[in-house]
Each structure stands twice: as C-alpha cells, then as structure tokens.
Write a structure and sequence with these properties.
By secondary structure, this protein is α+β, with helices and mostly antiparallel strands. It contains 11 helices and 9 strands. Strands 1-3-2-9-5-7-6-4 form an 8-stranded antiparallel beta barrel. Strand 2 and strand 3 form a beta hairpin. It is elongated, with a radius of gyration of 21 Å.
C-alpha cells in the first residue's frame, strides 16, 4: 500500500444537525398560562411534522406510514450545557437549513437560546475494503487518479453504498438515552495519525471496531464525519436504554491503541428521550 493513496475510502449518507438549547424558564413562567398552552401546542405540531418524513416523501420511497423513519428527535438534556437537545437527519444540508428556519418560526423559539450546534454527515469508513479497491484498480493497469482509476473507484463505492443504504440513511434509534461527543485524531509533533502507514491504521481500526461490536446489542452507534463542516473531525452518537453502557464502552475503548494514542475528545452531551407529545408536560416541569 506504500505506493497507493493513504486516504481510506468513505461512504456518506444523511446530513446531520445537532442543536443544544438553553430554555428561558424565567420568561416562560412570566408568560400568561393561556399563551403558554398555545405556544406549546404550536411547537408540538411543528415538531411532529419534522419528526417523520412527509406523506409525499414516504410515497416516493414506497413505504407505508408505519415504516417512515424518525428523522428528528427531542431530548431533555442533563447538566449545565443546555436544557433541550434536538437531532435532525436529512438528505441534504439545504433540508437541515430548512429545519432551522421552520423551528425559528415557532413562538417557542423565542424562549430558546442556542448554546451549541454540530453539523456533519453520516459516514462509514472503509478501512477494510479500501486496500482491495485500490489494489484492484491498480491491477487493471489504471494510473492513480486517472479518469479510468476514478471511474473504477466510483463504481466500487456505488456498489458498497447500495448494499449499506440502511446504515447510511438510518432512522434515529428508539432508545431512552443519547450520548453525543465530537472527536479528532491527533496531529501532534510526536504522535500524528495522518503520518501512520495505511496498513497500521487499518490494523488499529479493525481492533478498535471489535470493541464496539461486543456492545452491539446494548448500544447503537452512528458515526458522522465533519471535516470541513464543523470544528472537529467526527461526531459520535450513542443510543442506549441503559446510560451506564456509555461509560463502560467509552472507558474500554480508552485502553485501545487507536484511542489511547491517537484520539482527542470534545465535550460530552447526554440526554433523555423526550417524545414530542410530552413536550407540554416538560414545559410544566414533568419529564
């Protein structure tokens, strides 16, 4: 692999937006009860529309209503970093931008202070198959990055994307708890992930993935790439019905070489799933 590109191939799917809001409880409690009721009802109506795809979209995909995936989810956030978390999965950045605009039109938005956000795209890394794909293109006699080379790589990625479509365009898992955090690979003077030979990175990522697979029945993980889109290189969403599994999984991964030597972590955000229809109760102090 020393004479082939060092960059692993990736597949991209849904565009993703995370929003973290502080709620203005003082202003909310000062508002008349009738106004609060109307504001809550209107916000629930908007969120219900955002939660699942429209009838037209569902028909285009040939799906019945009970198969329409959850594309927006609401969480009651723990800790001082915020009060409400929203996650949105869409087919484009334009669609995510429209979600932001739709939310901004609600009366409830006047009580929300956006403290943090994160933009990314669902990403599947192909460390395992990149070597074979590059070597196959090279064996055909194609010069690296030539039109023929690029066409062969694109065809291989298209086949993989079709096979992995459910993972590239996932529904938001129906789990009680969410843990989100961004992360980077180190680029220091002494330790730099991007100077490690491909084969070594491939080995480490394979071993790293084995840990996650052991937790597959307890936690659903969705990785999104954010290089060129936000401040970190990846975003990680973990969904589970037992929040302690977040601690156990991440702690075990800290002992793995790829994390212990090459990983940098951002802030962690944790929340409890808040069904849209229960937003009114949450606004009255009931989870």
């Amino acid at each position: 692999m020393s004479d082939l590109p060092p960059v692993p191939l990736t597949l991209e799917g849904s565009s993703v937006l995370h929003q973290f809001f502080r709620f203005d409880w003082k202003a909310w409690h000062a508002a008349p009860a009738a106004d609060r009721e109307q504001i809550a009802s209107s916000a629930v109506e908007t969120l219900r529309k955002l939660e699942r795809m429209s009838v037209d979209e569902g028909m285009q995909m040939g799906q019945g209503a009970h198969h329409w995936p959850v594309r927006t989810a609401l969480y009651s956030q723990l800790g001082h970093k915020g009060d409400l978390m929203l996650i949105h999965f869409r087919d484009s950045l334009e669609a995510l931008n429209q979600v932001e605009l739709d939310l901004a039109q609600t009366s409830l938005y006047g009580f929300l202070d956006l403290r943090h956000s994160y933009v990314s795209v669902v990403e599947l890394g192909l460390y395992e198959s990149t070597r074979k794909t590059y070597e196959a293109a090279s064996a055909m006699g194609f010069e690296e990055h030539s039109p023929e080379w690029n066409a062969e790589i694109a065809a291989s990625l298209a086949r993989s994307a079709e096979a992995m479509k459910p993972r590239l365009f996932p529904a938001i898992p129906d789990a009680k708890y969410l843990c989100f955090y961004p992360m980077d690979r180190k680029r220091g003077e002494q330790v730099n992930w991007y100077t490690v030979p491909f084969a070594e990175r491939q080995r480490m990522m394979h071993e790293h993935g084995l840990i996650g697979r052991r937790y597959a029945e307890q936690v659903k993980q969705i990785i999104s790439g954010s290089i060129g889109m936000d401040d970190w290189e990846w975003g990680v969403d973990l969904f589970a019905d037992d929040p302690v599994v977040f601690k156990k999984l991440i702690y075990e991964m800290r002992f793995d070489e790829v994390s212990a030597v090459y990983a940098l972590f951002g802030q962690f955000f944790i929340g409890v799933r808040l069904p849209v229809e229960k937003l009114g109760g949450w606004l009255e102090g009931k989870l």
